[in-house]
Amino acid sequence: MSSPNSYDLAAVRRALPVLEEVTYLNTGTVGIMAESVLAAHLAAVTQYERGGHVAERAAREGYERARATVARLIGAEPDEIALTRNATDGVALVAASLPLGPDDLVLTTDQEHPAVLLPWALAQRRGRGRLSFFAVSSDPEATFNRFVQAVRPATRLVVVSHVSCETGARLPIEAICAYCRERDILTLIDCAQSVGQFPVDVRRIGCDFATGNGHKWLCGPKGTGFLYVRADRLQLLEPPLIGEGAAAPPFDRRLLGEDPAWAPWAFVASARRFEYGTRNLHDYAALTAAIEYLGGLGWEAIERHLATTSAAFKEALAAERGVMLHSPWRWEDSSGLITFGVEGWSGLELSRRLWDDYAIIQRRVQVPDAVRVSCAYFTGPEDLERLLVALHALRRR
Ligand SMILES: Cc1ncc(COP(=O)(O)O)c(C=O)c1O
Fold first, then answer.
1. 197 lines ligand 1 (CB under 6 A)
2. CATH architecture, domain 38-294
3. Do the Cβ atoms of 265 and 253 come closer than 8 Å?
4. What pLDDT was estimated at residue 6?
5. Is the distance from the beta carbon of residue 86 to the nearest atom of ligand 1 less than 6 Å?
6. What end-to-end distance do the CA atoms of the chain give, in Å?
7. Residue nearest ligand 1's atom 7 by CA
8. How far apart are the CA of 29 and the centre of ligand 1, in A?
């Protein structure tokens, strides 16, 4: 497997000590943090926890730097970014904030993560919207056609993944969003599996809302994520919860007076309206560090590496007897996620054996019954070789 990187893969791998113990092919679930990012993370935790209120200002500056860094990364303005705990938060906030009636349709796909399904299932139970579905194909044109056929006059919102967590297929989201814009249908894109793999630009995508997290392909800290709300869509979202930080003007006991409900306060006029109370400001310092670390390697180089590495994985896997590949071939239609099944093996058992007997960290997929491996910026030919050796040995059992 040739590696046309502009970064030093061996040095990158040395910064990830767990690679000495395991074959890590599970960035699609949780990324691993480079040592320099971890050092920044620990320093931020130490400073804030030791300093308490003394360190508050520095922690808050770090928090706002993270907001600006995320905004730059996805082509948004800082005021359009709410910092959240994870990608699910973003979906749940939209689901709980958007005023939908029981007959308004929320169109999504058959490959969504529970992060999408559960918040909208709950919204439906509470009389806010009703889920409807279309099937994702490995051919984006077929996916788009199925999407168009599934749109109804009552469709108010389309919620789709940028990259399917099941097959790694890239959805034709720009075409989907353009179609929706022409019909006044709102769009929410789940970018949990795309941000960090290849450029994600919310303006080019043309969506109204987007959600993502820091702990997968950005290899940042757990408990960090973002919700993008296009500036002119902000007034559509009335948060279900509020606290200090989310209301304007800032808290003033005299202003709230004896009748706080009717005092002249409002939600702040930015996506910060979803953020209130004391927060884990220090974690977001490491989100900035993680994004800057990967940016330093070069986003184009990372994408090139993922494209060539995942192509090598797919070619090698497809050449194996009894292996069924479920991910699209072309890089433009796919991602670093590769899903495959092996004849005679359930995904669950194959995943267990790879993990327990060969220290190959991946995840099982339920539908299709298969295993999913992630090719990340640090994945090398040795990882593929170990996977193939394990598959050969398992087939002989
Ligand atoms: C497509 C997709 N969306 C959302 C999530 C959930 O992300 P989080 O744990 O940050 O809420 C995942 C996690 O695997 C995912 O694959």
1. no
2. 3-Layer(aba) Sandwich (3.40)
3. no
4. 86
5. yes
6. 28
7. 87
8. 8
